[in-house]
Design goal:
Blueprint (H helix, E strand, L loop, with lengths): L5 E7 L12 E6 L5 H9 L17 E6 L3 E5 L10 H17 L3 E9 L6 H13 L3 E6 L6 H16 L7 E4 L8 H17 L3
Parallel strand pairs: 2-4, 2-5, 5-6, 6-7
Antiparallel strand pairs: 1-3, 3-4
The structure holds guanosine-5'-triphosphate and magnesium ion.
């Protein structure tokens, strides 16, 4: 897919404030600092479309971007950073659950996980909750430029093994880096293929 235009639309504190559901939508979710905003900038070829930061918790709202005037890309707030109160954690869950349950135009969520670390409970819990809600998702490994090929292969194999303890089949997986842009074409290709499904369903 060629990115002709990519523009910020709005930030919403709750799903009710999100834009009208008149276009197919693709969301990015994952632990704080996993690289959501960086990957969004990499796939859209816009260095500063989504704000990135070394400080976890930068993105706390539901951020909508419109791409090619045709589909929405959504940067969701990260989870799991250390200095967060129980109350904020609960608010995050309500915000995300409401968004996921009500956003009928959501075609797919890309769940980002850091390729450098072992499977984390918070990520596995999120993946489980997508399964329980029957929502389509893709697991996206990030920051793969930081690993040697053999270590990356080992980590991904371990992740797959962990998933297979719970799932009969492996979910769709994409291996990425925002630095060397690995996987970005594949990710965009997946989005491109999903767009016509939205219009076929006569939303
Ligand atoms: P929150 O908004 O806090 O939830 O974080 P985020 O998931 O949006 O992460 P962000 O894109 O801001 O990136 C966090 C840090 O990781 C930044 O310092 C990035 O430069 C770095 N980073 C992100 N993606 C990559 C990558 O593919 N490779 C490398 N080497 N660093 C990355
Ligand atoms: Mg971010």
């Amino acid at each position: 897919m060629i990115i002709k235009t990519a523009n910020f639309v709005k930030s919403s504190a709750k799903y009710e404030q999100c834009p009208e559901m008149n276009m197919p939508e693709f969301a990015f979710i994952g632990r704080s600092n996993v690289g959501k905003s960086s990957l969004i900038n990499a796939i859209t070829n816009h260095k500063k479309l989504a704000k990135t930061s070394g400080t976890p918790g930068k993105t706390q709202l539901i951020n909508h971007f419109i791409i090619n005037e045709e589909w929405y890309l959504v940067d969701l707030p990260g989870y799991g950073f250390a200095k967060i109160s129980k109350k904020m954690r609960a608010e995050w869950k309500v915000m995300i659950d409401n968004y996921l349950y009500n956003r009928e135009s959501l075609m797919n969520t890309f769940i980002l996980v850091d390729s450098r670390i072992k499977p984390q409970k918070l990520d596995l819990d999120l993946i489980t909750s997508y399964g329980e809600k029957n929502l389509p998702f893709t697991i996206v490994f990030t920051k793969t430029d930081k690993l040697k090929d053999n270590i990356l292969a080992k980590n991904i194999a371990e992740y797959k093994r962990t998933l297979l303890e719970q799932w009969e089949e492996l979910p769709h997986i994409i291996i990425t880096s925002a630095i060397d842009k690995r996987g970005t074409e594949e990710l965009l290709g997946y989005i491109e293929e999903s767009i016509p499904i939205f219009f076929k369903d006569e939303h």
